[in-house]
């Protein structure tokens, strides 16, 4: 990644509605008019790296982001989107077709970082990235939700064509450090691969906004996952608040600063202007080794298991 890359990516998973969309996963119903000020403020703050996927809200996340992109110069933004094997057609050109759909919705000709969303079939799908890079349609390759063996195998396949993995994107938070324990963070550091950490805030569970008195909406993906564990999570959130007092920062900002301190690039989902402004500030917080250690002990000690239905242990 060049020096112009921000320390934080902004995620558009909860934008739009439909299968795997903001309404089902987050209980949100957000439209262009809700989100235009969020996009504008992000650009003002220099947070220009946007992460989305064809599968989010059946394309509605990309469509909303694409509407905003029409008003900015292409070189002002860094775009990250994904190929999801589970929604691919049976066509031999399935990856090209999905990329074409993403480019159309985003109103761009080139994607800066294109991901294979999960390791549904590493041998089948990894080679299909090669012509997309060679033809200039994508600048860099990422793999998401892959374990260490799968990352290494994908890299081998790409290396044979003179290419490499530039980025890995896995679930990584104070409650979920399996990528670190599995040696994936070390592998990324050793091989010049940027590790993108998603769900750093556990979809809001580490922000201090939710607790036993104020649970997540019932019947949503995150409500089902976190509501049974709010008491255990509160111990960690209390410490995030305490550390935050020193830096005049919120629990979310401290959890984000922790992920940056671990050498990762966190993806922060944004639906409000305030969240963008908070994210921009958290990139400037440097935690001490003692604070990092304390937070990790409490995260590990909470015993909360936040593996989600699409994931596996690393």
Provide tags for this entry.
8 strands; TIM Barrel; single chain; 314 residues; 13% strand; alpha/beta
Question: Your description of this structure?
Answer:
With about 325 residues, the chain is of the alpha/beta class. The protein has one domain (about 10-300): NADP-dependent oxidoreductase domain (TIM Barrel, Alpha-Beta Barrel). The chain contains 14 helices and 8 strands. It has helices spanning about 20-25, 30-45, 60-70, 95-105, 120-125, 130-135, 150-160, 180, 185-190, 220-225, 230-245, 250-260, 275-280, 290-300, and strands spanning about 10, 50, 80-85, 110-115, 140-145, 165-170, 195-200, 265-270. The protein has an 8-stranded parallel beta barrel with strand order 1-2-3-4-5-6-7-8, surrounded by 4 helices. β2 (about 50), α3 and β3 (about 80-85) form a beta-alpha-beta unit. α2 crosses α3 (about 60-70). The longest helix has 18 residues, at about 230-245. It is globular and about 50 Å long. About 45% of the residues are buried. The mean pLDDT is about 95.
Oligomeric grouping of the chains: single chain
Count of discrete alpha- or pi-helical segments spanning 4 or more residues = 14
Our estimate of the beta-strand percent is: 5-15%
Low-confidence stretches: none
């Amino acid at each position: 990644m060049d020096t112009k890359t921000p320390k934080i990516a902004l995620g558009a998973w909860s934008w739009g509605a439909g299968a795997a969309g903001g309404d089902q996963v987050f209980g949100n119903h957000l439209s262009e008019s809700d989100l235009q000020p969020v996009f504008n403020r992000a650009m003002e703050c220099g947070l220009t790296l946007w992460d989305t996927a064809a599968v989010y809200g059946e394309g509605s996340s990309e469509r909303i982001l694409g509407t905003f992109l029409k008003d900015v110069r292409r070189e002002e933004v860094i775009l990250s989107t994904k190929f999801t094997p589970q929604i691919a057609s049976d066509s031999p050109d399935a990856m090209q077709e999905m990329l074409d759909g993403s480019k159309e919705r985003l109103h761009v000709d080139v994607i800066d970082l294109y991901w294979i969303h999960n390791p549904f079939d590493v041998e089948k799908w990894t080679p299909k990235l090669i012509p997309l890079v060679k033809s200039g349609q994508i600048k860099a390759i990422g793999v998401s939700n892959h374990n260490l063996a799968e990352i290494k195998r994908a890299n081998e396949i790409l290396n044979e064509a003179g290419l490499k993995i530039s980025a890995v994107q896995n679930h990584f938070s104070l409650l979920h450090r399996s990528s670190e324990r599995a040696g994936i963070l070390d592998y990324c550091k050793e091989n010049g691969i940027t590790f993108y950490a998603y769900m750093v805030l556990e979809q809001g569970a580490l922000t201090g906004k939710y607790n036993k008195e104020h649970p997540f909406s019932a019947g949503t993906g995150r409500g089902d996952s976190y509501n049974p564990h709010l008491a255990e999570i509160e111990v960690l959130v209390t410490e995030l608040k305490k550390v935050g007092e020193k830096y005049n920062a919120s629990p979310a900002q401290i959890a984000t600063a922790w992920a940056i301190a671990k050498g990762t690039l966190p993806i922060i989902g944004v639906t409000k202007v305030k969240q963008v402004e908070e994210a921009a500030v958290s990139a400037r917080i440097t935690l001490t080794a003692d604070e990092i250690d304390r937070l990790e002990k409490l995260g590990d000690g909470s015993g909360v298991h936040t593996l989600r239905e699409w994931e596996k242990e690393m």
